[in-house]
Every structure is written in structure tokens, then in C-alpha cells.
């Protein structure tokens, strides 16, 4: 496998102006006639035309209507005898392919009797020979021909310009896309589908048709997706002045999909998981995810489609920016400052539990990578979530209005082009010449070029004589693969100071500043650019408590030696909701880490800790949060949820997964038992009153009552109480929405209640015809707490269940990923059986779907941190996969990096 390097980029030797594709769709042998008009790129030295292809049967090649010689270089088609000069010429290529055998789900494939395509990143070459790179943008005309009875709906990008019947029961549809596009945005769909339709008028008065296509039976579950799409259209026009540029915008759902969704121009293809929802089958989280994924794909229409990437190293140009946009969309829809804070906390939680480990592991790469072997491996949390944080910092450094101006300039400069991350930052900076972003532009761009998470060390010193508080901020960043030295980043640190006794916000006056301007300011942004900087705050009567990195103003780790008392002050009083939550997390984390390290704390015969771990002050603080009538339920649920095992593991140099699991479980148990009366009150006070609505307030109430029920069942398991498991079972039976029903089922399963097996059986019987609900049923069992090593055998049994299929990515994820990647206590077995299971599944999946297999392969990324005996067992399991001779490039790259 050869690494592709960013520095080797050269412009294409040919441009493709137009493409006319004709498909004769047949699952076993689809015929593709590709008629292109090309011309040489005058800026590049004359050279043969090399077209990408993969798994195609080539039947005919004509240049300007004449047969021509060609040769193959690997899977590429090479044409040497092309017309000289820069005049356009016609190239016609006729190929066939076999969609029914396409289990990779890249290119043209069949899912439940319907044809779908997935072309990003390099799937178009599996449909026809082409210059499969994003900087080649062409006009597309597409004719689809297929059996009318089996494939009544024929869709492609753009506008339907013709349709009709053919001989032998076949019919055709002809689509013209009015916009030039790179081939990764091409799509077609053909099958038995029905659509929810909605006509809308844009702000400028243009009419558009929105359609959500699903399988016949699923139409009743499309209302939320359609509403989300309508909100998305309105939001992009209102917030960024970006209108819908198509007469028709379609979303189609498929149950076989490698990722979440795909932003093909005018014809988005979605995993059913991010389209279908009814209160009976989808949880509040599902509803929220649908809103954000529908938004995300829609927002790509400008950030990705109108302005696309020059090459795949620039992937974050569209993904980081579009994640930032979908996060802002959800926050704007959420409305209240508290609901915005909840969304911010959830986003940061994802970043810290998934992206920070990636940045510290063998797959660490910059937001704009320098090289890759398989681009599919780089659809990562670094490209998406860290990329979004880098855009968010730009937004915050230039301000909301300044960012809007920067976006406007970006589109003025680059609409219709394929550009780079540099082009984006330059536009934001140029639109804001006086901003700190522009002032530190070259240094800011290190966020794109340097991998790794910076750490900011904060130390404070109060001098009573001068009434000054000196805060020193120092930054560092550990080496990452291929980058041993790091230069300082530009780190915006939003901060405030809090009175240690009253919790009041203090005015921020830096030495040398007048007191008048400072009086009004209790929060400000300091831009850290040096390795170390000291700020001196004046006019302070006592040592304050610093509240730093408010709102998580930069994707960094903050190291600061807070006392417990200071953290309790922040938890109770910080005006910044993010840092209130963060203070609670720090207290819990510190307690967990101390208990993990404390050899005197033993695990008893029951496999449980025999000591109380949580300090009374912590429990009291949690009680205060739970009882505080001024706080929203959603926020309380976040504060009362302990840091995950994965997050705790990341803070340690040597990881004993079993000890982490035991400590966290013991902490939960103690919280469950000590706050029993408060959990009961939380349950009672947060019952649904009206009809179901997935809005932030109602879903927050369900989240908190769900956590309360879970805790009450955990406590009951300890005390022998049968009332709460009984209540949970009753709630499970009568619940009218999936959130309450699934929360109750989770409480029974996770607490090990004897009511769990009958509840699981009932759940399966109720939802046997709802694949997305059956995914939840599988995931819950594969992710259940381990009791004496029972989860792995259960997982094996689940794989033998008639509803299980390794070929369906959602189903594979629901069982295998839930076990290997989301259940550390059960996966990291001391007999290494979890790792053996993992290596078998990676190898097995690789033969079916390398992309999904490579994601699973990453479950052991952090193996080097593991303590004995897990470390050597994990290494052996990775080596076992690596020893397989015929691995895909996808899996090969992941395991090679892991072993390096
Ligand atoms: N841009 C889309 C990426 C995607 C994808 C990539 C590789 C293989 C399959 C895929 N399906 C979708 C999704 C997005 O970020 O919007
Ligand atoms: Zn995206």
C-alpha cells in the first residue's frame, strides 16, 4: 500500500466539462455508458489520460466516436493517443458492474431490492472510469433505465427533464443537474419508494419541492426529518444568507449504509437511523440526531458542494465547517442559554472521549493531514469534531458578525471552486483585518498542521499587599507520530474570576487598565500565543477562584491544581454553565483516579469495592444540584453523570480497565444509595404531563427521570428492594414513547434485575418488525455490564440470532461495536477472549466491508496504555490481524500504525 502525500498535489492534466451517463440497471449486470467531453489542462505538461477504475468490466472505449488503443496500469485505464491541443474531445466508455455483489457499499449497490450509490470519497470509480478527484467538476446528465414494476422510482441529481416507458416493461428517467460538481457528489437511487413532500417558498420568493423518500410502510416516520429539513433551509438563509439553489431537494433513506448520511447534490442519501422517527420507535437522542444530521447534510450544499475541497487532505474544509454549522443550528433551535450550554457540553464530551484519545494515539493526524494510505480511514473525529472546534475558535476570535462577513467573502471568492483550508481561514481573516485571528494568522494555522491536543497549565498567585492575582498560563503539546516538535498554538482562553466566599463574579481588571472599563466585564478572552504568559489582575480583596477555558474556548486540556473547595465553589456558582459542569466532572475524576491508585481500596468477593469512595461533600454537592429548582433537568442529568470509563482511562498513564470499571461502578452505586430520596423526588417531579415532544425541556426531563430510575434500580439491587424494579417494569410496559420505554429497559438490564430477561423478550416481540429498534435491543445487551464474564457468551449468542447479519453495518455496529468499543468492562477480559473475538471479527468483516472493518480495528488503538496482562494480549491480537496476508488497505493501515 502506498502513502499519498499532500505535498505531491498537482492539478489534473485534463478537465472533464460534461458527463452523460446512461444506466441500464440490473442487480447482476448493470451497463454504464459514460460519454464525456474532456480537454487538456493547458497549465499542466502534456501527458496521457489516466482514469481511475475499480472492479469494472470494460467493454468499449471510443475517442471522438472512433475506437482507440488503451492500456491498463493496475486498475487505471490509460489513454495515450488523444487529440493534441486544448480543443475539447469526446470520450465514450462502456462498462458493466455487479451491484448485487457489492457488499462494500461503495459505488453502486443494492439494498433491500433498491439501487443506491455512495461515491465519497472514491466510490465513483466503481461505477465508471473517471478522474475520481474532487477538483474535477463537471456538468451531469443522467439517464436511468430499469424494470418499471421493480424500480418504479428513478432518481438522480438535479431536475427531472424527461421520463417515459420503454419496451419489455422497462421505463426511463432523465435528470440534468444545473450545477457543476465533483463526481463524489453524484448519486442515483432506483426502487420501490414513496415520498413525503413539502412545497416551500424561500425568503426571496422562489418555490422549491422538498421530498423525503422511504420504503412504503415508513412514510409515517418521516415528519421529523421533513421538519428538520425545512428548519435547515430557513436557518441557512437567515443566519448566513445562503439560499437553497435547487428546485427540488431530495432525501432518500437506506438501511444499508457505511456512515450516517451523504450530501450528494440535491439527492442526499441517509442511513435510515437518521431519517425515521416516531415517538413509539425513536428516542429523544434519535430525534436530536436526525435534526443535526439532516441539518449537516443540507448545510453541505454550500459548505462542501458549492465550494468543495481541492483534494482529500482538505476534507476538514467541508467537514469541520459543516459540523460547526450543524452544532450552531441545533443550538439556535434549542433556544435558551441553558439548552445551548447542554448542547455544548454534549459536543465537548464527544470531543474529549473520542477525539482526544485519537490525538494521543497511533492514528493521530492534523486537521489537515499530510499523508494517508486509505482516505476512508480519515473520516475521523479529528477531521470532523476537532475541525469544528478550529472553526469555532475563528468564529469566537472575529465575533459572530465578523464570522458572517468572513463566510460572505469566502463564497464571493470561491463559489464554484475546489479550494483549501488555507483559503477558508484567509477569507475569515481578510474580512476582519483588526481581529486577533488576523494578527496571529500564520500561528493560528498550526491548528491545521500540528496534530495532538495542547495542554494549558495554569498557576495562580495572590499577593495581599498589592491586591493582585498573577495567573500564569503555559502551553505544551506532546509529540505525535511524525511530529516530534510542536510550536505554540494560538489558544483563546475565555476566563472569569470568582469570589471564593460568596461565589460572586469579580470584575476583571488587568494591570495597567482603568477600573471603569473593567467594572462591566466579568468574562473576557485572553489570547495565549506564547509558550508561557502571565496576566496580572488587580483590585482584588482576596484570592479569587479562576474559571478558565469557559465554554471550552479551545480544544485543549486544562491542567490546574484546584482545591476541592474551589471546585465546589465553581460547581455552585460559576456563571459559565460549561465550567459548572466541568467542576463536577473534575471532582468526580479526581476521586476516581485516587481510588484507582489507592492500593488499600480492595475489591471484595462480590467483585465490588468494599469501601465508600465518594466524599460526603461531593455527595452533598450532587444533592444540591439535583434539588436546585433553578437548574434545568437536562443540565442536572449531565452533572449527575460520572465521567465515562474511556475518559477516566485517558487521564491515566497505565490503564487497568477492570479497576476503572469497578471504581466507577462503586461510585455510581454510592450515588444511587446516598441520594435515594433525591432520585425519588427527581423521578416524581419529571414525569411527562402532556403529549410527546422531543424539545430540549421535555427531553431533559425524560433524561433526568430516566437516570433517576436507573439509579433507583441500582440501589434496589443492593438493598433487595423490589418496588423500583417493579416500577421500572411497569413503566417499560406502559410507556407511550421509546425514550421512557428504553430508559426503563436499560435500568432493568444494567442493574441486573431478574425482570430484565422477560422485559427483553417482550421488547423483541413488540418491535420485531422495526429494524432500528431491534438494533437498540442488540446494542443494549452487547453493552450490558459484565457479570462474571457473561457478556461475551451473550454476544456470541446474539450473533447467532436469526435477526443478526454481519453484512448490515447498523446491525454489525449494534452488536460488535457495542461490545468491543463501548463496553470496556466486558471487553478487556483478563483471559484475552474479548481481544480474540475482536480479531476474528475484524478479519471476518474485512472480507465483506473493509470500511466498517477498519473502524472496528480501531477499538484497540490505545493498547500501549494498558497494564499487564492486557497490553501483551492486545498486541498479540493486533499482530494476529496484521499477519493476515490479504487484508484490505483500510485495515492494513490501521493495524500497521497501531503496531508501529
Ligand atoms: N460526507 C459524508 C461522508 C460519507 C462517507 C465517506 C466514506 C464512505 C462512506 C460515506 N458516507 C458518507 C458524510 C458527511 O460528513 O456528511
Ligand atoms: Zn459532512
Automatic annotation (TrEMBL):
Superkingdom, natural source: Bacteria
GO molecular function: alanyl aminopeptidase activity
Domain Peptidase M1 alanyl aminopeptidase Ig-like fold: 452-559
Domain Peptidase M1 alanyl aminopeptidase C-terminal, first and last residues per copy: 564-900
Cofactor: Zn(2+)
Residues in Aminopeptidase N-like N-terminal domain copies: 86-185
Domain Peptidase M1 membrane alanine aminopeptidase as annotated: residue spans: 225-433
Keyword entries, A-Z: Aminopeptidase, Hydrolase, Metal-binding, Metalloprotease, Protease, Zinc
Pfam families tied to this protein: DUF3458, DUF3458_C, Peptidase_M1, Peptidase_M1_N
Catalysed reaction, written as an equation: Release of an N-terminal amino acid, Xaa-|-Yaa- from a peptide, amide or arylamide. Xaa is preferably Ala, but may be most amino acids including Pro (slow action). When a terminal hydrophobic residue is followed by a prolyl residue, the two may be released as an intact Xaa-Pro dipeptide
Gene3D superfamilies: 2.60.40.1840, 3.30.2010.30, Neutral Protease Domain 2, Peptidase M1, alanyl aminopeptidase, C-terminal domain, tricorn interacting facor f3 domain
EC number: 3.4.11.2
Record family assignment: Belongs to the peptidase M1 family.
Record's protein name: Aminopeptidase N
